[in-house]
Amino acid sequence: MPFTPYHFGPGLLLGVFLFPFLDFSTVMVASVILDIEPITVVIFNLPFAAHGFFHTYLGATIVAILLSLVIWPMRGYLNKIVSVFGLHQESSFRHIFPASIIGTYSHVFLDSLLYPEMNPFYPLIANPFVGIFQLGFVYNSCIFLGLLGFGVYVVRLMYSHLKPKQIVTENDVFPR
User: Fold this and answer.
1) Closest CA to 98 of 65, 55, 133
2) Sign of the alpha-carbon dihedral angle for 105, 107, 108, 113
3) Is 175 a domain residue?
4) Could you give the CA distance from residue 55 to residue 60 in angstroms, rounded to a whole number?
5) CA dist 7 to 28, 29, 140, 149, Å?
6) Is 172 inside any structural domain?
7) Looking at the whole model, is its pTM more than 0.90?
8) Which of 65, 88, 89, 154 lies 20 to 30 Å from 74 when distance is taken between CA atoms?
9) Is 60 exceeded by the pLDDT of residue 129?
10) Which of 28, 24, 22 is nearest to 7 (CA)?
11) Are 176 and 166 in contact (CB under 8 A)?
């Protein structure tokens, strides 16, 4: 995909729909971070495939592990940013790591539908997914998934504002 924006669509849907189980900010970052590779190849005119090693499931796994280790100490700061958008979340490593894996793997899968130079199952040299769908269908699907994700986000916000708030005071004998 042309440098990332389309990857936000599926990332948004996955992050909002699986919000209780995945760290939202991690899914969003993980769904686009792999495009550092093609951007670097293009900017520096490097003699490598734009969608090379990090656009494989092996490379994506390495990136997901590193990303999890980087995001873990930043989770408090990232949770504050996510809270601005009405998504209150307490992150743990068991939410961050799967979010990294799902975000990077979804990126590899989407790009493997489009780019014949990719070898998603490296060290095997082949791309069984390329050409399954037409380019326009993949792009339009990403836009649709993003709009669907935004819709789920709006419903989640409305639901959180409509449900009654439980107030716990310091003097409660039996806190909820």
Assistant:
1) 65
2) positive
3) no
4) 6
5) 9, 10, 11, 12
6) no
7) no
8) 154
9) yes
10) 28
11) yes
| Backbone phi, psi, residue 48, to 5° | -125, 165
- Residue 60, token pair as written in the block: 């994506």
Number of neighbours of residue 4 by Cβ within 10 angstroms: 17
Instruction: Give the model confidence (pLDDT) of 5-36 as tens digits.
Output: 899 999 999 999 999 899 999 999 999 999 99
Does residue 125 fall inside a structural domain? yes
DSSP-derived 3-state class of residue 152: helix
pLDDT, tens only, 62-72:
999 999 999 99
Domain hosting 81: range is 5-162
Residue 143 lies in a domain: yes
Number of domains in the chain: 1
Two tokens, residue 111: 């790009």
Per-residue H/E/C for 10-66:
HHHHHHHHCCCCCCHHHHHHHCCHHHHHHHHHHHCCCCCCCCCHHHCHHHHHHHHHH
> What is the distance between the alpha carbons of residues 142 and 112, in angstroms, rounded to a whole number?
14
Q: How many helices and strands in the chain, by DSSP H and E? A: 6, 0
